[in-house]
Amino acid sequence: MDHDGDNGDGDGQEFRRSRSHFTDRVTADGRDGWPVAAGRYRLVVSRACPWASRSLVSRRLLGLEEALPVAVADPIQDERSWRFTLDPDGRDPVLGIAFLAEAYRAREPGYDGGVSVPALVEAASGRLVTNDYQRLTLDLATEWRELHRPDAPDLYPEGRRDEIDERMEGIYQDINNGVYRAGFAKGQDAYDAAYARLFARLDQVSEHLADRRYLVGDTITEADIRLFTTLVRFDAVYHGHFKCNRNKLTEDRVLWAYARDLFQTPGFGDTVDFDHIKRHYYQVHADINPSRIVPRGPDLTGWRSPHHREQLGGRPFGDGTPPPPPPGDEVIQPL
Asked: What range does the record give for the signal peptide (predicted)?
């Protein structure tokens, strides 16, 4: 069974994340056979998963809710894969399937590999299109531009892409995936190495953000989305469950303020479901938490406290505007 967003497996002491198996792209010109089209695809996510959460934030910021409907899986998956037990009769109402694995097998009969979210599925055929979480959000920001809402922000500005890519690579290796390398390490040396890299990178990012509001330029970009989805889970699950416990996020003045700034920005915090996050990690990873007890803490009310990052300037949406409130059926119970 995969761990969250794609297929993780152990190799000796060190946790290694395998590559996405299905990497077709949905593009404006349809060069992979999958053209961008409103309503043609269904985005299958778990709100527990940081990789899927990237796509939820991007979709909100870009105003793609109607063009790209979402299917939310139960945060507790089983050996048969992510389940649609949150829906009536335990089936996705559009795809008609009970388990995401069915869409994978519709694409590749007999497929028995990892089943991950986010997954883009063609609604009419029920076939998986892609589970390439690294590429998916970049394509939403660029290839799907004709379907963006008016005044949507540019999350992957052409003139900044090299800088964004470089920033995202270090964050991915040492933070996004680093918490997993610490949490799923099978030996002390592997854990120590992952722990050291994680906090060295967090310290570097904290220093970088001390005098600037966002990671690249003065607007929100894809890099901020990718960092946020790990930071928002840090104290709730990674600090204790994954033994990433040198300090809590709340104990880093810069990163805690930065994360709160984004959380309070429309499109970020309104996609976060701490209940799904905590139940998934603590109940699915039985090898780490055999009792499956879900901790009561931490206190989450601080996410709404003033952050004062606006004093650094910046224009969150650049020349664009904030997204409207989420659709009624996507509203998450607020803190």
From this structure: none
Cis peptide before 118 (omega within 30 of 0): yes
- For the annotated catalytic residues, the residue numbers are 49, 180
44 forms bridges with which residues in the sheet? 71, 119
282 close to 293: Cβ distance less than 8 angstroms: yes
SS3 179: helix
Predicted TM-score (pTM) of this structure:
0.95
**In this structure, are residues 144 and 200 in contact, taking their beta carbons and an 8 Å threshold?**
no
| Separation CA 301–CA 168 (nearest Å) | 29
Residue type, 53: S
Asked which of 7-11, 86-90, 129-133 is least confident by mean pLDDT, the reply is 7-11
For the ranges 1-10, 128-137, 264-273, 316-325, the lowest mean pLDDT is seen at: 1-10
Q: Which residue has the tokens 């990012």?
A: 205
Architecture of domain 8-147: 3-Layer(aba) Sandwich (3.40)
Q: Decide yes or no: CATH 1.20.1050.10 for domain 158-330.
A: yes
